[in-house]
Predict the structure.
Amino acid sequence: MRVYYDTEFVERGPEHPLVLVSIGMVAEDGRELYAVSSEFDQDLVRSHPWLSEHVWAQLPLRAGPEGTTVLDTGHPHVRTRAEIARMVHGFLRATPEPQLWAWYGSYDHVLLCQLWGTVRDMPREVPFLTHDLKQEAVRLGIAKLPPQESGLHHALADARHLMRRARWLEERS
């Protein structure tokens, strides 16, 4: 069964590791998972122009000091990385023969692996391969796919749209 997923993350170059902000997963049977890490540096995301504009505003936020917004760590979607790892493991364990799919998925796969530390630490139910839907579109010679109507850069909305795109591609292949 295919599982479409997306991550939002902080990337700062080779001197710094990738930092997970959120992950969204959608299985073909309709199950969904969405989680926001409670462990990323909020100031880093708020001060980054692109992340601030496209990702920060879509996270569960609450009023902070002096008119700022902060991550609402009491929100049910906000979890520690260890909790997210357990959630993802349970989600994939409940999926018959899971096949992971992402859009330009190399970073997503690295972030997925890092939930457990390294690729060697991943539970056996987590596939070592993420298929890339963009690569599949290129293989099929399809350059223009349906645009995402809303929720762009919200990990769960992106995963849902990825599943719609996959179905659209299957109809044309």
Remarks:
- The chain has six helices and eight strands.
- The mean pLDDT is 96.
- The chain has one domain: 2-172.
